[in-house]
Structures are given as structure tokens and as C-alpha cells.
Amino acid sequence: MQNQVGVYAQDTAQIDKWTFVFSGRYDDARTHVTDRPTGAETDYSSNALSGRAGAIYNFDNGVSPYVSISRSFLPLTGKDTLTDAAFKPETGLQYEAGVKYQPTWLNDVMFTASLFDLTRNNVVTSDGVVFNRQIGKVNSRGVELEAVGQLTPDLKLTAAYTWYDLKIKQGNPVEIGKVTTGTPEQFGSLWLDYAIPSDRLQGVSIGGGVRYVGSSYADSANTQKVPDHAVVDAAIRYEKNNFKASLNVSNLFDKTYVASCNITCFYGESREVSLTMGYKW
């Protein structure tokens, strides 16, 4: 059982073409752990100050470079299987720099490119069956690309790609320099929405896209690899006046693939169809 109380404050300041964001948060977490096989009980508490600071400069031509730094705090429950010690909170420190671009000739589209460096401390890994370990320090650095907006009045684009260089920096000596198990280093997605410009089909839109997940490792020695995979999704929507309905299909072609392995392997979700309807008044 875990109780957490936090106090949060944020301020945004704009000076000429500069925009600054500052935020701070103080958390106090108290955790009670009961070992059911033995009945042993453990109480522990943790607290930390985290926050974020960032700045962006908006040029007249639509280019906006930015920088940010942020600290994170995540209380954890459970114990290390090997040491029987209660998990320490996970903390993180991230630096990010990038640029946003909104073309003057394409006002409804935003492009973003960023570089980041994230260091996480007290990371917990699991073999998926029995063992949970708090390994120490993991660093990930990489690049993120994103494009979002209306290409035409009827066609909307959402696209993203992330590439990581992920390494264990502190922990078991034989694992230093390796990638944590079950963690892909690439992600990508592309989605297009098209609103049918027809009086007879007014309010109808169709969408489709693909999700890509890169390969990952199944063991801490990084000798066994889980292949990458991509699945296709689709949707058809109708919205008029106060009524709206949506039919969504994930993994449209019902592709069979292994999502991740960590001693135990797990298949990805098969085709899933969902229908939602809503009315507002």
C-alpha cells in the first residue's frame, strides 16, 4: 500500500519573443509492504523535490529553438528479490534541446526535432516470472522527430519517430554497457485522417496508419533478440450535430508477433475492433 502527497507550482513568463516555463513539485510518499509468504511487514518513506525549467525563442519565420531540463521522482513498491531490500524511489534527470518549425506557408502543420539525454537511477528490472532487481543507473540519449497538422483542409497527418541509444551505466559489472531487457530502441508511427468532402457523406472521415516497434533483447547479456514488428490500424468516424460514432480496428491484418521477451515471451495483441458512440446536449 502506498500513500503519496505532493505540492506543485508552475509559472510561465513571456518576454518579447522569449517564453520561459518553470515548475516545481515536492512529494512525500509512504509505503507499507507485506510479504504474504512470511507475513513480514515493512514501512518506509521517501520524499524529493523535482521540477522543470525551459525556454523557447519564437522567430518570425516560424522557427522556434528551445531547451529544457527536468528532474523526476517515482516512488516504487516491492523488494529486490536478491537482497530483500525495499526498492528505493526511481529518480531521473533529462536534458533536451530542439527546434519547432511552423511554416508560414503551411500554418496548420508543426514540425519538431529534438535531442535528449535522460539518466534514470534505481531502475527496476524483472525476469518476467520471479526475480525483480534494482540495477542502478540507465542512460538513454537519442532523437525524436514529429510532424502534426492539416496538410489540406480534408487531410490530417500525425507522424513520429524516436531512436534511443540505451545503456546500463551502473549496476552488475557484467551488464554495464548492455541494453535493459524488453526495451526497444526505436519507435515510429504514421497516421492519416481524411474527411470525405461530399455532401452525402458529410461528417464521415476515414483513417489509417502504421505503428513500428524496433527490436529488443530477451536477456541481460544481449545475446537473444526479439525481432522488430509493425502493425496497421484503421478507423472510420461519423460526427454530425451532437452525435458522433467511431469504429476503430487495431492490428487490422491480425498479425502474429512477439511483443517482448524477458525469460518469458509475450505475444502482441491480436486484431481488436471497438465501436464507440456518443451524444452531447
Quick description:
0% of the residues lie in helices and 66% in strands. It is mostly beta strands and 281 residues long.
Task: Give a verbal description of the structure.
- By secondary structure, this protein is mainly β.
- The chain is 0% helix and 66% strand.
- It has no helices and 17 strands.
- It has strands spanning 2-15, 18-34, 41-57, 63-74, 90-101, 109-126, 132-150, 155-170, 186-195, 204-213, 216-217, 225-226, 229-240, 243-250, 258-262, 264-267, 272-279.
- The strands form three sheets. Strands 1-2-3-4-5-6-7-8-9-10-13-14-17 form a 13-stranded antiparallel β-sheet, with no helix packed on it.
- β3 and β4 form a beta hairpin.
Number of strands: 17
**Rg (C-alpha, Å):** 23 Å
| Beta-strand residue fraction | over 45%
What count of helical segments does DSSP give?
Answer: 0
SSE-based structural type: mainly beta
Major β-sheet profile = 13 strands, antiparallel
Question: What is the H-and-E element order?
Answer: EEEEEEEEEEEEEEEEE
Spatial sequence of strands, sheet with the most strands:
1-2-3-4-5-6-7-8-9-10-13-14-17
State the low-pLDDT regions, or none: none
Mean pLDDT: 90
> Distance N terminus to C terminus?
41 Å
Shape: globular
Portion of residues within helices: under 10%
